[in-house]
Amino acid sequence: HASGEGSGRAEMAVQADKAKFVELLKALSSPDNASRQKAETLYQQAKHAEPDSLTVGLLAVLGAPEAEEPVRRHAAVLMRQLVSRGHEKDFIFARLSEPNKQSVAAELLARFEHERAPKVQKKVGEVVSKLAEHVCHKDDPRGSLAPGSPTGWPALLPLLFRMSDASTCPSAEACESAMRLLIDVVPTLKEDIVQAQVELSRILQAGFSQSSLKVRTAALLLVCQLVEEVDKQAWAPLLGTVDTLVQVLQQLAQAGDEDMLQEAMQALTEVASVEPEFFKRQLVASLEPAKFMASVARTRERVMNGTRSLALEWLVSYLEKRAKWLTKSLKQFAPIVVETCMEFMLEVDDGDDEVQSWIDRMDDEEGDEDVDELKRAGEEAIDRVARAVPMELLRADLFRLIGHFASQDRWQAKLAALAAARQVVEFVEEKQDIDEVTQLLLQHTEHPHPRVRYTALLAIGQLANDQSPTFQESWHRTVMPMLLKMMDDGVDKVAAMATSAFISFGEDLDTSLMAEYSQGLMQKLVSKLQATKHRGVREESITGIAVIAGNIGTDFGRYYGDIMPILKQIVMIATGDKEHRLRGKAFECMSLLGIAVGKEKFLPDAHQAIDAMLRTPLDADDVQREYIKEASERVCQCLKKDFKLFVPALLPGLARTLKFDEVAETEEVGDEDQDYYVKVTTGDGRLVHVHTTKFEEMKQSLSMILTFCHEMDGAYFDFVQDTASVLLPLLANEDEDYALYCERVRGTCLQAWGLLIKVARAGAQERAMPPELAQSLLSTGLRTTFALLDRVKDAESLSGIACGVAQCVRNIGPGVLGAGEVAQIVAKMFAIVEQSQKRSWRAEQDRSKEAGHGALPRELGDEEEEDVDYEESEEEQLRRNCEEVLGAVMEVAGDHFVQCLPQCAEKIGAWLQTKQYKVLALYLACDLLLHLGEKSQSTWHVFMQQVFASLSIADEEDGDARTAAAYAVHMAAASPAFAEAAPEAFRRLAQIVGGPRPKKRDHKGKRALDNAVAALCALAKEKPSLCPPDIQPWALAIARLPLREDEDEGRKLHDKLVDLVMAQDQALLGGPSRSNLGPLLGIFSEIYKSENLCTKETEGKILKIFQLIPRDMLQGLASGFSEKQQKKIEKMLCG
């Protein structure tokens, strides 16, 4: 170092009174509260009043070898806080004088280079890393130590390059520390580091050649950090190091250094998640590092569970990222992963004490984290594998392994087989496979070991959730008696799981089938509830009763008088710390019983239930909170307008949770809690730190307000203004942290605002008042949201705001928006879409530039499409939500919107030129057809050709476009202007409807099919004479009914079909022979009393149809009905 620098450091040492600072640091760690508080006060004062002296003094202690090492490390910790720009309360480096900034930076580098205590050197490195984030910030050069220089700290990288070179660095410990510091600064200085290719190559070559495992590990970590952080072109030369990385892993495993092995494996796992192509070449050549990871994962002796779990995590993470390539080009990879998962699920202790501990532990109680740790890891991993790899490719190996494990005598092997079956049943599609899994599970429900019985029942419950209602309809005669028997299992935990499995099975069991079992079940559940002391059995029994009530509805009335007093008693006496869930489930059950039997019977008990809920003291993490919230919402759902009686008691509490005023001031937030707090400005301008749990509480309160508005409608009118005054500050809050962390709160708040507009309009109509309040709310909402739209740039936030605008506009109803407002909203939405498109274009340019395919090795140029660009998906959603705003405006102000048709035609034409915006264009066309009808005919020539192109069965992957195109045909079907196109529309829709059924997980394909069916029915009704003679549209459509994926479209189509049957439509009924009547009646019986598929009004019409049909005719058609359909028809006619 120059002599000037040395004298500068000497002057700093002279100026700093090291002894006093050592004394201060010791006092800050003193166990004596008085001493510690006094020292804290002095420290805070120095931060505010004497930042230079404080920083220089801490540096002096840091460089004083005579000081105790813990004191020096404490000085480094405080220094790190003082130079960290993220901690505004502590960050004082920017306030230092310029000479002291330079001196501090130079002294830190000197201290790092010459420090001999490894722990202190590491702490100094952390200070250097944090300071580099400030002085080398590329987007904010104000902190630079060398203004105008390419880097803000010119001395930093030369020092690190020199110290990290193991061939010249005299100490392995110092070399490792320097390499780790270099790793830390990669995110800040990656461009400068990449440019230094010669130095970097020398560091890595020397590092991997070093005898010290610590240095070789540091080199591995440096490679991983570079691959994660820099562009693909920059890390491509590192592909040749993968074999060396595997060698380092093997050496660490042989040496038994599990701490460093875990660190290295974690780094490789992060690379697998971010840049999986990095491993492709080596995987093809030697299947490494997969073989090493699988070997470590399966090693039971001398390897820690954490290490084994990390090895499995690498395997699963890589499979998730590159499933398509692996199943095509490296077919042995997935079986290795599945077998490793199965091996993990064997890891269950079989001692009597361990089994008893498992029996005694409630499912909601915390236990030893290490118990069944590997089993749980295996279960989670095999679930992820099944999500990543199509079942048709995974099935053979998976079912072979499940069968192999199930055939073994060891109960752990059977447990593993059942656990694996439970994890994958969601993805099984073939009926024979579902039946095979079911038989496997049923074979083990009475196994001698309680854990096997428990898991078999748990899996049956999962099967009921994932394969409903097919599983229930096919297996209820076997499963229901078995569950009833297992509720008496000698192990209470198993008995509780049997009831839990019934809950899952019964929720989607058809009402007509439940009628066979309800009486026996009620007797069993009530006896369990009254006789047992086991909390789990009691909790599940209460929920089981609620499921029966929800299923059989008003028929539950015969049990209501006996059950409600039992629930009230539980609410009164279940007040212990471990009984909160039991009490919450009692509230839940009371509310579900209310919905089942109706408000007339429930109203007297509703008063007591709400009163008990209001009087329940709740801690922030009390499990009762969620139960009480949902129960309150259900009571409102049951009572509708009569719930108004309870709102005055509930609203003040909700209002309190939606305000920040009572939250601790900034100064009260400790350093250790900083990450859990968000800065928010209150209504009176105070800055407070709000714990993140506050926002979850706010979302729950907003959800309740949404329910009140939706269910009570105009009856909530008297509370609209008070509610709006609480919501407005949340809508208008401009805090950056609020927007970043709490956008969902604002999104839910916008939904509530939209419903307040609807309530205000309905309430005014009921009271014969002008809609002034609704208009005022709309004006305020639009003004506030438009201000946000101008300020916010984040696509996700903008998307939520646009969704709220659409709801506000839609809920104001017709006759309010004027021509000027329509033009303003339309222009704003198109502008936001255009801005979004520009962001997407720039992102695509950046990706293309980064990819640089021509300069990359072949294996790096074929990224899979499954790498979803999250940011682009948010942009797509934003554009879709903006289009929904346009549709809402058309809906409420169609006459005024006509002026915007030329603008719409121009946008649609432009969007259709690119595949990326085709669906957006089609949805805008759909809204024009839906809301403006033939008034939009001037725009049809722009999009109709694409509508028909998107109906092509060849375009199988574009489900969204097919959905929109089918809906467009549906909307145009009734128009005379569509007559010329109708025959071709019939042909294309018939191809889709008569084609192969989409796979279970192809939700876009299923939604498109539903819309194609609805469109074909619309054409068959409106343009029957134009249907080609070789197409039977009604027969094709009926074969695909009922519609289940697009529930809104399904309810509308089902209602239309019922109307046509009531009108004796001959074409629908199948001509004189009425060949379609039987299938239609079967469909009607199936959707009857299914609220997802059928409205109350439609139910009434269905009942009327069956009552009008002669019994002998129904009996003649009975052979064509399923068991469920027959029972539903019998219940209809007998009820």
Describe the structure in your own words.
With 1135 residues, the chain is mainly alpha-helical. It is 70% helix and 1% strand. The chain is built from 57 helices and 2 strands. Strands 1-2 form a two-stranded antiparallel sheet. Strand 1 and strand 2 (687-691) form a beta hairpin. It is globular, with a radius of gyration of 34 Å. 45% of the residues are buried. Mean pLDDT is 90; it is low at 1-16 and 663-674.
The oligomeric state of the chains shown is single chain
Helix fraction bin: over 70%
| Cα-to-Cα separation, first versus last residue | 97 Å
Please list the strands of the largest sheet in the order they lie side by side. 1-2
The Rg value, from CA coordinates, equals 34 Å
How many individual helices? 57
Total DSSP E strands? 2
Low-pLDDT parts are 1-16, 663-674
Any descriptors?
disordered N terminus; single chain; globular; 1135 residues; 1% strand; two-stranded antiparallel ribbon; mainly alpha
Short description:
This protein is mainly alpha-helical and 1135 residues long. It is 70% helix and 1% strand.
SSE arrangement:
Layout (H helix, E strand, L loop, with lengths): L2 H13 L2 H11 L4 H17 L1 H12 L6 H14 L15 H17 L3 H18 L20 H9 L7 H24 L1 H13 L3 H17 L2 H4 L6 H14 L2 H17 L5 H7 L3 H9 L6 H17 L1 H7 L3 H12 L7 H9 L12 H16 L2 H16 L4 H14 L6 H12 L7 H17 L3 H17 L5 H16 L3 H4 L3 H14 L3 H18 L4 H17 L6 H18 L1 H16 L9 H16 L7 H11 L19 E5 L5 E5 H21 L7 H13 L3 H6 L1 H24 L5 H20 L3 H18 L6 H33 L18 H23 L1 H4 L3 H11 L6 H15 L7 H11 L8 H14 L9 H12 L9 H20 L10 H6 L8 H16 L3 H4 L7 H11 L8 H13 L2 H7 L5 H12 L1
Antiparallel strand pairs: 1-2
